[in-house]
Structures are given as C-alpha cells and as structure tokens.
Amino acid sequence: MVAILLGLAALLSPEAGQSQAQSPPASVAPAPRAPKLDPRLTDAFRSVKARRYEEARRDVDVYLRSAGAAHPGQAHFVAGLSYHQQHLYESARARFARAVDLEPDYLTAYFFYGFALYNLGRLDEARQALERYLAFDPDAAEAAFGLGLVALEQDRVDDAEGSFRRAIALAEGQSPGKPMPAALREDVARYEARLADVYLRRDDLPRAREALDRSLELWPDHFEPWHKLALTLRRLGDSAGADRAQARYAEALQRRAAGGSPTP
Amino acid sequence: MTRTFLGLAVGATVVAMALAHAGLHFSDVTARSGVDMVITSGRSPSTQILEVKGGGLALLDYDNDGDLDLFVPNGAYLDAPRGGPGARLYENDGHRRFTDVTAASGIDFHGWGMGVAVGDVDGNGFDDIYVAAYGPDVLLLNDGKKHFADATARAGLGDPRWGTAAAFGDIDGDGDLDLYVANYVDFDAAHPPPGRSFFGVPVFAGPSGLAGVPDSLYENLGDGRFRDISQAAGIAGAKPAYGLGVVILDFDEDSKQDIFVGNDSMPSCLWINQGDRRFLDQALRVGLALDGDGNAQATMGIAIGDVNGDGRPDVFTTNFANDTNTLRVSVPGQAAWDDRTRQYGLGGGGRSFLGWATMFYDFDHDGDEDLVVFNGHVYPRATLETMDSTYRQTPLLLSRVGPRFQRIGAEAAGAWLAEAHVDRSAAFGDLDGDGDIDIVVGELNGHVRVLENDGAGGHYLIVELSDRRPGIGNRHGLGSKLVLRRGDATDTRWIFSGGSFQAASAPYAHFGLASDREVSLDVTWPDGRTQKLDHVRVDQHLIVERNPPSS
Questions:
Q1: Structurally, how many domains does chain A consist of?
Q2: Is this complex's ipTM strictly greater than 0.85?
Q3: Which B residues, 248 through 287, put their C-beta within 8 Å of a C-beta on chain A?
Q4: Alpha-carbon span B503 to B130, nearest angstrom
C-alpha cells in the first residue's frame, strides 16, 4: 500500500492540476488501516500512473467481470482515479461513489471522492468525504487542505484558516529537524497560498503578504502567489514591490507554459 | 406601468398583473410573442470555431414609441459568410407582441453578424445599430421614419476583420457616441486550420494557435463619419488578443469613460481613459485581467453590478467549462478589484457550465440584484464522460440571498429554464411594460426565445435618461451612474453599452424595491455632471431629462 501510494504521489503532480494551489494532491499519506490494493488491480493502477487511462479502465472492466473479483470497490476506485487524473470529475465521482459504497473500509477512495465532489461544487458531500478520511488518518495534510478549500468555498473563513494551518503543521511535521523534500515544500507552499486567501478574504493584507512570502520562499516558481502578492502589495501602496512581483509572476508563468519544472 | 416624464405622467397604462408565480420565474412566451426565428450560425453540429459564437441580439426602441423592439443580426454559412438568411427587426406593440418589420425597415444585412451595439450616433433622436461581424461590420442609421440605411461606407467603418462585440460610449466627452469593437481571430472560413484535441477528443481549431486581431476604437466626428483612432489611443499597440466582450463605463470614477474588454483565453483589458483620447491598459494592475489565482480565462459574457454595495462597479465574467465564472468585486477606497467568486457562492458549482450571456438585475423585486447566466458548450461532442460537461446546458438563475448567490432550482425557475440548450446571447428589458425585466435569448442554430418575467412581486423603478441638448448623440446617457436612496440604504446601477454577450439591452436602469414607495435619485451623467431628484415615487418608468447647465 505504501509503495502504491508513493507512486500515486508522483502521479498526482501539481502540473496535472488546473490550479497549482488547489490541484489534486501532490502527496498522499497512506491511511494506516486501509486495506491493500488487490494485486490483480496493480496493472490497472500502473496504467493510470502511465496516463494510459483507457487501458486502465479496460483492465478494471476485465477485473470486474472476472470470477475472482474480490474487491470491486477498489476496482471502481482505480477507474475513478483514471478519470480524476483526466479532470473528468463527474465520471470520477460516480466511480468513487461506487467504491465507497462497495468497500467503505477502503479509505483512500474517500480522499479522492472528496476532491472530485469539491471540483463539482458538491461541497457538503465533499466535506463529509474528507472528514471521513481524516477521521481514519488524522495526519493527512492534504485532506486537511481539502477541507480548507471546501470551507473557503462555503465562506466559512475561520474553518478554512484552521484547516490550512492544520495542513501546514501536519506537512511540516513530516520532516522534523530536517530540510523538507521538494515535494513537501511545494505542498506547504500551496497551503500557505490558500492561507493567504483567508487573509485576503478578511482584507488583512499584512498577514496575507506574510503567508505569500512564506509560500514563495518554499516554492519560488509558483505563479499563483506571485500574482496575489503583486495585487496585495499594490493595495498596500508598494508599487515597486508590486511591479517586481508582477515580473516574477510573468516569469513563472512563462516557465510553466514552456513546460519547465519549477525549481524548489 | 406609469410612464412619467420629469415626474409628470404622460401615460397612465397601469398594468395590473395577477402573479402566477412568486419570486424568480420566467415563462417561455415565444409562441405568443410573434417572434418566430431560428438563428443561423453555420452548420449544426458545428465544425469550426466561426460557427460557435452564436450571434447577438438587441433591444431598442427604434420607433420611439416607448417600448422595446428586437433586432437580430443573424449569422450565415461557412461557404457563404455574406449570404446568410439576413437580419431581422421585430416591432413591439407594447404588450410583448412582435411583428416582423424587416422588409419595411430597409434592413438588408446578410452577413455573419455577431455583436450588436445601439446608440444614436448621428444625434437625430433615433437609435442606430452597429453590427460587429465576421466580414465587414455594418452601421445602420435610423432615419426616424421606421427606416434604416446602411451608412457604413460613408461613416468610414466596415472593418472586414472578425468583430465579435461592440459598444458605444462618449470617450472624449464631446457628447456624441464613439465606438469600440472587440475583434477575435484571423480566420479564413474557406481554409480552416486543422483541428486539435480536447480531453482526447478531436475538436475544431482555435482560438489558441490562431492569430489574434487587434481591437478598434473609432471617434465619432459628429458629421456622420468615424475616425479610427486605435493607434493614437494606444489600443492598437497592445498585443492582439481574442476579444469577445466589451463594456464602456467610468470604472475609476474620474468622469472619463473607460473600456473593459473580455478576451478569450488571454488577460482581459481595462483601458483607462487618460484624457485626450488616450488609453492605458491597467487591468493587470487593478485585478481585472486574470482570475484571483493568476489564470487567464475565456471571458465570454460580462455583467456589471454593485454586488458589495459600495457604489462602484463589480465585474462578473462567464467562462469556459472546467473553470468557474468569476466575480471581481471593487476594493473599497481603491481603483482595484478582488476576485471574490467563492465568497459570493459563485465558485465550484459552475465548473461544468460553459457560460455566455449574463447580467445582474433584480428580477424578483426583492431589493437586491440577482444574476442569470446562459450556457452551452462549443463542442458538440461534449459529454460528462468525455469533457466533464455537456453540450446542452441549463441556464443558471442565481438569487441573491443574504451575502451569497444561490441557484434557483431549474423547475422553480420555469420550464424553459429547466431545459438544456446551447444558448449564447441574451438581451434584457421590460418587454410588456409591467415594470420587471424580461429576457430575449438566442440559441446557437436554435430559436430566439422570449422569456416573460412572471415572478416579480414588490415594486420597481425604471429610470431612463434623456439628454436632448442640441448636438448630443448620447441621448440615453450611456455611461451614467444612478444611485437610488431609500432611507439609509442605497442601490447603484449603471447605464452602459455592451456586456451580456454580443447584446444590447434596454438603455435604462432598473431597480427592484421590496416595500419602498418613495425614493430619491442621484444621477451622475457620463461627463460627471450630477443631478438629484427627491420624492420620486416608485412603480413607474421615469424619464429624467438632463438639466441644462444653468439650472
């Protein structure tokens, strides 16, 4: 399970997301009591990882039609994951719903189910799914982050702040006393960028600026916080700083468009 | 409705209306309206980007009889872009019954019409029509005798590039109406570029990969001619973009008209008027170019309203599927806007919709502005399975409930609004004189629909401006701001050209009022001159004459 989920972490890179700050998760901690993925679904999962989504779904269908399909819920999860990676959230949601219905103990499905529901604007259900996941895996920073996104969308600003702070603390706690690996730095950077959204919502510009500065220190090529920082500095009256941030935003965006990877 | 001129009733047609529905509700009354028209836009299903932009609509009182008539520019065909079935003009009898008067009107436009702008460009007291088109744009001058003449060539207009939207405004403060045209891409219908892939599905090309076309700004010279001042104004020097929408309004409240342009997949522009017919794009600096995360969006439709109640214009734009529509709210005390889409409940629920026409109005007369968005995909093969979005989509009718907008259930909003269509343009105005806002909607290769607002209760006030000074073409005060005061509360509206999508809506401000019977009004005309009216009774269509300078 751990190996599979580590593979998942690489698969769900920020580049796959529409928005770096609320993209599908970049790292997923394994749920401690989640059952292992049926080895007969490993090939399908690897196909997802290799972006061969149709092939993955064909493998899942073969599995579901076979006599020894002991984990149909997991099969639907893998199929759902294939859709999720394509940003086909309605199809993903339907498969994840089948997954949690058939195998409620397969907790990883709740995590992705929550994000699919979030992307479809089904916020109450997204909250329930992510809370369910967090109940079993309270150390899952990304799930806490997801709850923050839902709260922000629902204008529960205090809850959003709490969730983002929790996500930051959990992520930072994964690397105590050591430099954070690049992927973790990017995760924390995304959380800080959304924490800044909380402060912007409150028109608390100094704290928004602090959060954006922290985010950009961790991930200088993340274009979203540069854009937010430029607007924030301009509202604070720092035109020169805003111009510099705007230039950094343009550079980061250009690198992203060119397909270059961010430098942590 | 009681129609009042400077507070004196000139008509006393009070329409008593038995409300069949309370709240936000519209009924499709097309069959009873006399409007029987299918908009042509190439083939169906669409095969090229040219075919998916729909085609505009305009509500204008072309005969000055006090009601809104309907103009539809209509589209054409890929193999005959200038040989379409032709534009149509429908005359309203005042009770929302329309008669096709195209032939008698002299309108003979068979090009591929897109955006429409309406204004009295020659100052003769009658509204004229400008059509931005694929192919030469046209200016149709209204002679005041229910007849239009094609004055394009004489006016020095007729840009052959693909124009998608147009708006009138007095950008130089001389009292006549200048013209902005948003242009889209360089596209040859006879030699369309090869298609591409979207979500792994083969689709037609564009706009990415196609060359953008610079927009155009024309100064009205006051003698029937326009002069292209795009270069001198700074507009032509901008990076060519895929323009889809435009609104002319004084965004920074310096008594000079600015220009907001929505660009497809590229940063939008806010051309701030520097005076002397020069403009600077400040959109990036003020927060109107991108969404709050720094992403360029598709920006089809534009709605202007005062969502946060600070008396300054907030900007709502509709976008492609797999993205949200975006609400940028003015920052108090600054010429800046902040993306507050999520705060106002307009985020995630919109991701499966591909939005086009949109506008804020207090449709149900409960005292706050609601929001409507008409939707429909561009790719006929769009399904939830292939693109996480469907080809046909229901409109979104969003009611303002406290601090957020809430979607009205499709069934509650009316049968037609519960159905999925491939909608594009929509124009707004009171078609039947009952004081609420009705809607005309155009569907891609589908019928023009007339939607009657039959849910509004409460009270209303329609305010139309009239500037009849000699030589003034901007009779309706396009670009004006109106503040209604009711006790300690205020409601702000703007009268402007452009917005929605490719449409010209009624050139007046509409206020819904839950219970107030008397209000006061502050009018700020486009040149900054202010005018105050006290003790204005509600439930009327008020025409406010601009005070002469000495008064």
A1: 1
A2: yes
A3: 284-285, 287
A4: 11
